[in-house]
Amino acid sequence: MPTDTKRILVFDPQTAGVSGDMMVGALLDLGANPTRVLEAMKTVKHFLRGCHDLEITITDTTRRGIQAKRVDVKVEEDVTRRTATELLDAASACLQKLRVSEDANRFALDSINALVSAEAVIHGQSQQEVHLHETASADTLADVMGAAMALDDLGILSDTNTYSTPVALGGGMFQFSHGIASSPAPATLEILRSKDFLAVGGPVEAELATPTGVALLTTLALESIRFYPPMTPTAVGYGAGAREFIEMPNVLRVTLGKPHGSGLMTDEVYVIDTNLDDSTGEVIGHAMHKLLQEGARDVAAIPMFTKKGRPGHLIEVIADRSSLERLCAILIEETGSLGVRIHPCERRILTRESILLEVTVNDVTKKVSVKLAKSTDGRIIRIKPEYDDVKRLADETGRSLREIEDLVKRKAAEVMDQRAR
């Protein structure tokens, strides 16, 4: 997660999923200007071929007792297929007329490109060849324009870090242009796959996550997280879906807040561990080395006593979600363990940044990598030069390792001080 004091925005689609109209409704409920958003959405009919009329209404409604904003888009169009180029050209024309910020312009086009790219992968065609059906409809483009304008109006694209909880996909079957399919739609699943985004099935038999909603969400959110980050909520918005469900409120919740001032950022990792009492030191050492090579964040071997008083080790691996399964397999294969335990873990950490410095000592100039640990308000807590780089410079100059390390630290501090001015 990022390292500054920006506001925090959390989308929460883990109950009712996400669609384009739900996102626009949630942002309106959060405080976006409805006049500007409506204007942006209606611009589409002037630039999209085959769109004759576009009627958009914004109403207050309730879903299972929760008040929410409902955005209803009704379209009259006589075109059922469009090319990706047509959709992108129409979007560019709309954005030019609306004169949104560069951030909003980029967000809108990136969201459409996410849709187009997913369709191209599914159909096995290039983005220039693929023809779009539902994803190129006027209501899709209207949702993108409305979301971009709402985000721009709220200032979210310039000063806010955005996250999302896992996306509820729903289930069952639904009808679309290619016939009957199971939920989620192929494009929805492809976007989630390409963005490495968390998703959950259910909780109802219906299509809860649409390609447009998922494209907007994954383009905006920095990260998919299981739990809210440490924050103080300042505003909450609810966007209503079209249907009413008995099982749960059909709403997308979005929460705006400010981060806690602890100076630490939040990170989510997984801890993999296993007990060993029949492996040699060489086997354990090799397993640790391979786990680090394959992407483990850290590996530790902790001495312990196991059953019957046998000496052994607790092997503990810190892993990202993306490398979790691979590292579990390596740990079992390399150690002969019969199984491993997995614990999702939230932690507080300092942010890290690496810089490359040119350091000259006794007419010898070398590049030294330096790691900086900083708090969320930008304060440098620790400066650590890379050992191998410092050792190489010490060996070539005949100076002590400690002396070279101190010199590099001072230079790094000077560089960061100049940057801050």
Descriptive notes:
By secondary structure, this protein is an alpha+beta fold. It has 3 domains: 7-263, no CATH class; 266-348, Alpha-Beta Plaits; 351-420, Ubiquitin-like (UB roll) (Roll), CATH 3.10.20. Helices cover 36% and strands 33% of the residues. The protein has 12 helices and 20 strands. The chain has helices at 20-30, 34-42, 84-98, 102-123, 138-154, 156-159, 186-194, 211-220, 281-293, 324-335, 387-397, 401-420; strands spanning 7-12, 51-63, 66-77, 82-83, 131-132, 160-164, 167-168, 173-176, 179-182, 199-200, 223-224, 231-240, 251-259, 265-276, 298-305, 311-319, 341-349, 351-361, 364-374, 380-385. A 5-stranded mixed sheet has the order 11-6-1-13-12. The chain has a 4-stranded antiparallel sheet with strand order 15-16-14-17, with helices on one face. Strands 18-19-20 form a 3-stranded antiparallel sheet. Strand 8 (173-176) and strand 9 (179-182) form a beta hairpin. The protein is globular and about 80 Å long. The protein starts with 6 loop residues before the first strand and ends with a helix.
